Amino acid sequence: MKQTRLIMGMPITIEIVDAAASQDDLDEVFAHFVAVDETFSTYKDTSEISQINRGELLPTQYSEDMQTILALSAQTKEETDGYFDIQHNGICDPSGIVKGWSIQNVAKILNTKGFRNFYIDAGGDIQVVGRKEDHPWRVGIRNPFNRDEHVKVLMITDQGIATSGTAIRGQHIYDPYHPDTALLDIASITIIGPNVYDADRFATAAFAMGRRGIQFIETLAGFEGYMIDVHGIATYTSKFERYVLQK
């Protein structure tokens, strides 16, 4: 079964290869994304994060999910030498970690239901589990200068992949050490990791680092990256090519 819905301001696609999948299964996991959006959307006045940013909630009133995300964000900030920071100009925006976290939650739900072959894509951040038709899942890296073109096609299984860049949302990531300077050197950076949660958060931090981001990914065990600069020139980590579909 395969279905796409517009949630969290982006298309979310779920494909379950296992024959036992039903519409109820899809409805349940899409409902999880809706609940996450209601909690963490900075565009909704009624969301919990909006209430926090308006000073209407005390830390003791935060939901369990909010406490989890804030703790994970603090951990990621430490692991990335401060380049992952959800605080900017007095506003808390954890979107750089929430998407990957929510995709990972849905993957756990599907796994608990007994599904072993599925694909979850939320706005280009992807978790794949198992295989499709006896081969690894194929995932394309879009050209940030031409969204209709793929610059690479990857073959992955039981892994996550996430891309940070300016092609869709414009300048929405910033360098915490130079918050008033636009990040203009890099067009996109795509990270392959053991799961989409880690790929997502480290992709955000790597983009904030600018050209040094790909070097940061090189130091992470179990991660590979593919960076495209503003001139369209690609730089990638040492073992990235093993995932590339050879034409």
List keywords for this structure.
globular; 12 strands; 247 residues; eight-stranded antiparallel sheet; 6 helices; T-fold; alpha+beta
Helix and strand layout, with pairings?
Layout: E1 2-7, E2 10-16, H1 23-40, H2 48-53, H3 64-79, E3 87-88, E4 91-92, H4 95-112, E5 118-122, E6 125-129, E7 137-143, E8 146-156, E9 159-165, E10 186-193, H5 196-208, H6 213-218, E11 224-229, E12 234-236
Helix pairs in contact: 1-4, 4-5
Give a written overview of the molecule:
The protein has 247 residues and is of the alpha+beta class. The chain has one domain (2-243): Roll (T-fold), CATH 3.10.520.10. The chain is built from 6 helices and 12 strands.
Sketch the topology as an H/E string, one letter per element.
EEHHHEEHEEEEEEHHEE
Report the uncertain regions. none
Helix content: 25-40%
Radius of gyration of CA atoms, rounded to a whole number: 18 Å
Strand order of the largest sheet: 1-2-5-6-9-10-11-12
Q: How many separate domains make up the residues? A: 1
Overall pLDDT level: 94
What's the CATH class, please?
A: Alpha Beta
| Largest sheet descriptor | 8 strands, antiparallel
Query: Termini distance?
Result: 28 Å
Query: Beta fraction of the residues?
Result: 25-35%
Tally of individual helices: 6
Helix vs. strand class? alpha+beta
For this entry, what is the oligomeric state of its chains?
A: single chain
Say what the CATH topology is: T-fold
